[in-house]
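Model the whole thing, not chain by chain.
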Amino acid sequence: MSQSLNQILFDQLDSIVLIDSHSHINPHSPTSTSLADLLGYHYYTELAHSSGMPKHLIEEPGISPREKVGRLFEYLGNIDNTVQWSWFVELSQKLFGFQGDEINKSNWETVYDLADSKMAQPDWESQVLAKSKVEKVFLTNDFDDPLEGFDSKRYVPCLRTDDLVFHLAQPKVRERLHSASGQTIRTLSDLKQAIDVLFIRFKERGARACAISLPPWFAPKAYPDQSHVAQVALDDLVQFGNDASETHKRTMAEWVFWKIAELAEAYKLPFDLMIGVNRRVYPTGVFQGQDLYDSRVSLIQYAELFNAFPNLPFPISVLASVTNQELVDYAWIFPNVLTHGHWWYSNTPNYIRHDLRGRMEAIPRNKQLGYYSDAYKLEFIHPKFRMYKQLLADVLAEDFCLGHGWSEEKAIALGRQILRGNVENVFEC
Amino acid sequence: MSQSLNQILFDQLDSIVLIDSHSHINPHSPTSTSLADLLGYHYYTELAHSSGMPKHLIEEPGISPREKVGRLFEYLGNIDNTVQWSWFVELSQKLFGFQGDEINKSNWETVYDLADSKMAQPDWESQVLAKSKVEKVFLTNDFDDPLEGFDSKRYVPCLRTDDLVFHLAQPKVRERLHSASGQTIRTLSDLKQAIDVLFIRFKERGARACAISLPPWFAPKAYPDQSHVAQVALDDLVQFGNDASETHKRTMAEWVFWKIAELAEAYKLPFDLMIGVNRRVYPTGVFQGQDLYDSRVSLIQYAELFNAFPNLPFPISVLASVTNQELVDYAWIFPNVLTHGHWWYSNTPNYIRHDLRGRMEAIPRNKQLGYYSDAYKLEFIHPKFRMYKQLLADVLAEDFCLGHGWSEEKAIALGRQILRGNVENVFEC
Amino acid sequence: MSQSLNQILFDQLDSIVLIDSHSHINPHSPTSTSLADLLGYHYYTELAHSSGMPKHLIEEPGISPREKVGRLFEYLGNIDNTVQWSWFVELSQKLFGFQGDEINKSNWETVYDLADSKMAQPDWESQVLAKSKVEKVFLTNDFDDPLEGFDSKRYVPCLRTDDLVFHLAQPKVRERLHSASGQTIRTLSDLKQAIDVLFIRFKERGARACAISLPPWFAPKAYPDQSHVAQVALDDLVQFGNDASETHKRTMAEWVFWKIAELAEAYKLPFDLMIGVNRRVYPTGVFQGQDLYDSRVSLIQYAELFNAFPNLPFPISVLASVTNQELVDYAWIFPNVLTHGHWWYSNTPNYIRHDLRGRMEAIPRNKQLGYYSDAYKLEFIHPKFRMYKQLLADVLAEDFCLGHGWSEEKAIALGRQILRGNVENVFEC
C-alpha cells in the first residue's frame, strides 16, 4: 500500500469544491456561536451520557454555554477514542487554529476562547465555507418553512416530509398544514391539494429534493387518489387525532407517502429515502440521542415503489451496514435507485470502508452520490467530509490504481464524479 | 504485505488446471460468435440499463450484433469502474490479444474486429479452454435436456430442478415432464416415478450434481411419498394450472423438493443449493436483469433438510454476504454442508474477500469448494477465476504465510485443494 | 502498515495481567489431564466430525485417552487451516515446549507425551496461569453449585441462569431449585423467593455476575411479581412438566428472566447476555457440537429491558457478526449496554477484526470489555487471548497510531483499558 499515492489522491480530492447534499443547517444561523453549540451536537451529548454523564447535568435549563462545556469535559475523556471526537479535534485545529493534539479537561478553555474569538468575527460563516471548500449546502426544511430570508443558491431548500407521512394524526401537524397551504383537511382531495401547494412553494423557492426518514417496518404501497380505505382512515385521524387507530395511522402514512412520490415525480424533485430508523427507542435519552433501529429491513419492501416511479430518482441512505449490499444491488439493477452517502450509525470508517468498496466496484459510476455531512452546524462539514475523502482516496489508490492499474488522473476523475459531479447532475444544481 | 509473495502464490494457483463446477454454458455453442454475445451477458446489459440506457435500445429485435455493441458503448463508460467491466477488458487482452488498457467509444471497433477474427477460427473453443486452463465445465441442464451431441467428460451434465419444484403448476412444465419421462402426471406416485426417470437418464449421461436456486422464503419440509395434503395440492395444480392456489403451489414445491433430495441421495448426486434469490423483482428490467433478493434469510430454514439427509452433500451458495457467516458455521457443524463459490451479487471482490477469509479460517479444508464461473460463455471463465485466484492468493499470503508462518508450499497446497481437489472429490470427477 | 509498531504494541498488551471475564472452567479440575482433554474440546471434535469422522469413533465409551487422540489425528489434518487448530499448536509450543510447527499423524505422540509429563507436575495449574498471565477467571456456575472448595478470588463465581429461565418445566430443574433454595415451588412468590436465595448465596461466595445465553426468538417482557397469566403458566409447568404448553413455557421464561434482572439490579450483579444461539439444531452432532443460530435477531427485542433497568449493566455478546453493528450502536446510546468479547462463531479473526474496529471507533472507551476465553480448560486461555491481543494491537497501530497520529503510550493505555481496566470496573474485581 503506497501511502504517498493515497496522499496524492486525497490532496486532489480535497481541492474539489463541494456541494453538501444533505444537512440540517439552519440558514438563519448556520454557524456555531460558542463551543457549546458544537459540543451540544447529539453525537457528543449522547456519547458523554452513554459513558456515564447524567442527563440532567447536560440538559439543565439555564446553564451558561461555558458551564455546559465544562461539565461535558468531565466525561469527554471517555470518548476520545471515537471518530466523532476526532471530528471535534480536527475542526478545532483547522477552523480555530488550535495547535495541540488533545483537548481535555486541562486545556478546553483555551479552545473555548479561541472558538469564541473566531465565531465573533463577522465573516465567520464565509471563513468556514471557504476553509471547508463548500459552495452549496442542502437544507432539510419543515413543510411549513417560509423559506425566506436566506440565499437559496447557497442554502438549497429540501422538503422534509416525515411529519406529513407519519404524524398527520397530530392536530398540530394538520393545523400547520392548513396554515401552510390554506387548505382545510377533510378529504383525500383536500390533502393532496394541500401537499401540492407545498411542492409548488418549495419548487418556486429553489428546492432540489424532498426527503424522508423511514422506520424499518415501513413498506410503501400504492393507493388510488380516491381510496375508500384511506378516506375512512383520514376521517378517523381528523376526528380522533393521536387516538386514531394504529391501522388508520399506517394507512394514511402509506397513502401520503405514495402521493408525495407522485408529486415528487411530477415536480421533478428527487426523493431522498433514509431507510431504517426507529424513533425513541431510548425515550429517556438525551435530545436527539434516543433513536436506534432494527437492522432486519430489506429493500424488497420498496420494490413496488421503485417499479411504479421509473422516472423519479431515489437517492437512498441506509442506516445499517448490513443493508448496504442490498442497496448496492438494487442500485445495480434499478435505474432510479442511487446510493447516497453514509448515514448516521454507518458513518464511521469501519462501515464506510466496507460499504464504499462494495459500491465502487459494482454500481455504475454515475449513480453514486458519495457523501453528505448531515451537519447541524457548518463547522462539522470540514472534518466529516475529510474523513470520507480519506477513505475514498484509499479505495481509489488500493483497488483502482494498484488493483487495476488505473492512472492517478483516471482515479481522480472517478473520485470527482462521486464526490461532486453526480450531485450536480442528479439534483440539477 | 509482501506484494511479491502474493504474486508467487497467484502464479502457482494460476497454473492449476481447473474444473468449473457451475456454469450456464451451452455445450452446443460454448463460445461467443461476436462481441455482442459477450456484451449481451446480463451483467453488461443490466448495468448499462441501470446507468441510463433505455431497454428498447438494448433489446430491439433485429439489430445486428455490431449495431448492438455500438449502442451499448454509448453507455458503457458509465460502468468502467465496475469489476464486471474489468472482466471484459481482461478477457479482451488475454483472449483476443487486445493491447490497450481501455475499451471505449473511440476504439471498440478494433476490439470487435479482433474478436471476430479470433472467434472465426475453427479451434476457438479449444484455444479458450487452453488459455483458461479449464478441463471440465459443469452445465446446468433443463430436466428434459436430451444431453446428447457433446462430450460429457468435458461438459458435465447437472440436473437443474427449479422448474420441477417451483413451476409444476405450468401446464407446459408438466407436458415437458411427460415427454421426458413418458409418465402422465396424476398422482404423487406418477410424479415421483417421472422424476426418477430423469435421475436415471442424467446419471447415465454422466451427471455429477443436481442444482436448484431457491427464494428466501423457502423452507424445505419433509413429506411422506403418499401425503394426502400433497395429493390434494397436486390435483389442484393438474386441474387449474397457474390458477391453482398459492398454498397448493407451495405444498407441491415442498413435496417435490424433498423427493428430489431423496433421489439425489439415492443416486449419489450432490445437491447444489443456491439460496436467496427473488425472481422478477424488477419485471421491466432487461433479460436476466430482473432478479434481486431479500437478505433476511437463514440457513436454519434448512436444518430439517440437513438432518434428514446425512449422506447427501449439499454444496451451498448464498446470494448475500450477510448470510455467509451462517454458511461458514453450518459447514463447520454439519458434515454434509459445504461452501460453494461466491454467487452473483456476492461475486465481487469486497464480498469475496470478507466471505473467503471467514471460510478459510473456520471450515475444514476438505469442505470448501472455492469457485465456479456461473458463465454463459467460455470466455468469461478466465477473468472470473483470475479475480478469485488473486483474492485467494492474497488471503493465503497474508493470513497463512505472514499470519501463521506457513511456507509457500503449504499455502499452495491449501489453495490447490480449495480450487480443484475438493471439486474432484465431492463431485467424483 | 508498520509491522514493528504492531509488534511493539502487541508486546505491551501481552505483558498485561488478565482477568478472564467468562469461562467454563471447572475450578476443581481447571487444567487438562491429557491431550484427550484438550482435543476433546468441542471445537476439535465437531470440526473433525464435520470433516468426515464418524461420531461413534469420537464418543465410543471406554476408549483410552491415547486411543481417542490417535483416532482424532486420522482426521485433524482436515482442519489444520482453522484458527482453532492454530490455538492447539500454539499452546503446545508455549505451554508444553513443543518445538515443531506442525502436529500431525506422524508426530502427535511426541506432543502427547510432552503434555503428559507437564500435566503430571503438581504445579501445572500455577504454571499455566503464570505463562498465560491470568490472575482471575470467571466461572459459569449452575444455580445449585455449592461454590465450595476453591479460591473464589482466583475463580470468580458467576450465576448461570439458563436452566431457571428456559428449563423450569423439567421436574429435575425444579427439584434442583428446591434443594438449592429450600423452597417448594408452587406460586410465583415461591419462585421469586427461591431465586432470591440463590442470589444471596452467590453474592456471599463472591459472585461478580449472572449470565444467560438466549435464543434469537427471545424478547424480554415485563411482568408484575403477581401476574395471573404467569401463575397459570407456572401451574401448568408444575402439573405437566415437559408436557406443559409451549406458550406457558415461554411465559415462564419471560417472567423468570424479568425477575432475575430485578434481582441482579438489587444485588448489583452485572447481567451478561449472550444473545442468539439456537440449541440442538444438529441433534445428532457430537457433544456440544449441535448448536447453531438464526442471524435474524435484533437488539430492539431488548429495548424494553434496557429502558427498565437503567442501573443494571448488561455486558452483551452477540453470536453473529451481522448483529455487531447493532451492538455497537445500542452501546453508543444506552448507558447500561456494554460490549463483551467476541463469542463462539464470531470468535475468529475475520469477524473479530471487523467487529472490533466498529466498536473501537464509536463506543465510549469505558464501555468496551475486550475479550474472554470461554474456555473449558485453562490451557486455552493463552492462545485465545493471544489471537485477540494481536488483532487489538493491529487496530491500535493502524487506526489510532497511523490513522490518527496517536502515540504508542496513548494507544497502549486504550488497549489496557479495553483488555483489563473495564473488566475491573464493571465487575468490581
